[in-house]
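During the second year of the project, the team shifted from modelling isolated chains to modelling whole assemblies. The rationale, set out in the original proposal, was that interfaces cannot be judged from single-chain predictions alone. As a representative example for this report, we include one of the complexes processed in the last quarter. Its constituent sequences, exactly as entered into the pipeline, are reproduced here:
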Amino acid sequence: MGYPLKNRQILLKRRPVGLPNESDYEVVTSPVTPLEPGELLMRNDLISLDPAIRGWMSADEDSYMPPIALGDPVRSSTLSTVVASRNPDYEVGDLVLGLNAWEEYTKLGDIRHIHSFATKMPKDLGVPNTWLLSVLGATGMTAYFGLLYVGEPKPGDTVLVSSAAGAVGSIVGQIAKLKGCRVVGIAGSDEKCRWLKDELGFDDAINYKDNNNRELLGCAIAKSCPEGVDIYFENVGGYFLEAVLDNIAERGRVIICGLISQYNEEVGSGPENIWKLLVKSARIEGFLIRDYVEQMPEAALKIGQWLAEGKIRNKVDLHTGFDNIPASFLKLFSGRNQGKLIVELEFDRE
Amino acid sequence: MGYPLKNRQILLKRRPVGLPNESDYEVVTSPVTPLEPGELLMRNDLISLDPAIRGWMSADEDSYMPPIALGDPVRSSTLSTVVASRNPDYEVGDLVLGLNAWEEYTKLGDIRHIHSFATKMPKDLGVPNTWLLSVLGATGMTAYFGLLYVGEPKPGDTVLVSSAAGAVGSIVGQIAKLKGCRVVGIAGSDEKCRWLKDELGFDDAINYKDNNNRELLGCAIAKSCPEGVDIYFENVGGYFLEAVLDNIAERGRVIICGLISQYNEEVGSGPENIWKLLVKSARIEGFLIRDYVEQMPEAALKIGQWLAEGKIRNKVDLHTGFDNIPASFLKLFSGRNQGKLIVELEFDRE
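Output from the structure prediction step:
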């Protein structure tokens, strides 16, 4: 691995209105300058594509993380290899998990990448590297903490999951099954619904494309969840949330993990039936995995154990090629991806 | 107290659209039939007027209590005197708290009044009877359980209360002060705001009539709650909730006690910025006091003690006369009442 001469990057040129398109980005090639003392250079082998990135593209200063600055490369979770280091804590060949960007190489220490971090990963875990960005990474943690710590499932609870065939939802449903819950998924195709039931063990699944408004989805939920919804793991928002509140059980819990239907809207829409929270003594609660830093070792251990025992399955939707990042990213918003969306960059392995 | 010959009642003739008006009611006078064995007849001395009654007038079958049937008298909390009894557990002169109706007399055992109950009250409590329907009744319990059990205030928390000059809100704010919180109220006039600050010890108060949209109210909240809102005790809904979510602190808690701005709307409106729950790890939670039946003795004792020690004050907005019930009820929805709204019925005391 020689020191690279140039770096390809996808910069955020302007803040998207609605779905991001190519005029929101600028693809540039820039030289890689030599390392200063303390710096390290990472090659971004795997780029994780997550709905949250769309939020970071917007201008909201009052979010949990500052927006991506215009002109910066698009922030993204990454699994990288250290290709050069002037930092005593890292050596060439180290595998690191980070919050880098849509670029081939990221230099840590570069003031622009203030959110970068580089957590060294063991190289002999015996699992595919993609798992470190999915079920063993933030995706798995999100499912684990959201469902177990925010939702507090009890055996026999009915757990409804939206984006159930997505990266987080598919793990949530499987953990809920392990906890003795009845699990129903909402997904965007009959094929995905079959996958949820036949492969992942969901008790039932609803195709929202056949139930594309509050009334229809509400009816489908009522049918699949005759005792009401005790826990709803929310990844979508909009009419999904209203249809669920129409069916919420007493003391029901809505876990807000994401609101993907809202991310490309200029003005969001809230559930008009929020009074259901009152009459059912129910709650809606948001969370961030950084609230659970202390519990992360427990989560990693538990998830690793379930994987080893074959009790949960991880599905990765792997794409290839730097140029395909923006188009792959859009799959998240069209309901077309299944499992965890990752783009693998190609490098000449010297 | 002779056995009454006739009973005046205000029946729900049709379900109101928007604010209830006189054509939604029918005032009737009917004979009082003799008691059957086991029955008792109560004279409704005090009628409690609460926002929840508006909800019971609507047709929603999936609420925490069935709607008032068309043709039935309007359900209401009441403090009554037993005027005749063929039930061994009650004797003439007993003071009873019940869920009777907008009528002079209620017969318990009457199948129509399936929600009636009659909880005997001690006669020598040394407090005005109106207090049994307010700070020592459901109003006080609502404030106590909502704030303490749902909101879980910690010393130093900023607690914001809407309808702060109302029956529940005024008690919530005072309890929050006792728990070491910084307390800000939202109310509908400068006079009420002065009362909250000067008489009840609120740290600050916002007149929403000067801040009648999300942006203005949000600015006022930001000014009064510079560290953000840790707990919001919600009685209003609509743009109030959005303005608060714009200012919610990390791990903030919104307690849904009521949504009075929504009760007369055909279609409610939900907070479009519900994503704030996600980025702030915050929650919105509803509750009903019946969830806390076991804790009620504790609450009554505690509130009684605070009252005795002069640590909280109770304000009653007392009206007089059966005919004035519907007009008095409307005061709740115009922001004109201050404290607990009760109508005292007049009877010839023989």
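The mean pLDDT of chain A is 93. The interface with chain B takes residues 55, 62-64, 237, 241-242, 246, 251, 256-259, 262, 267-288, 291 of chain A (CB under 8 Å).
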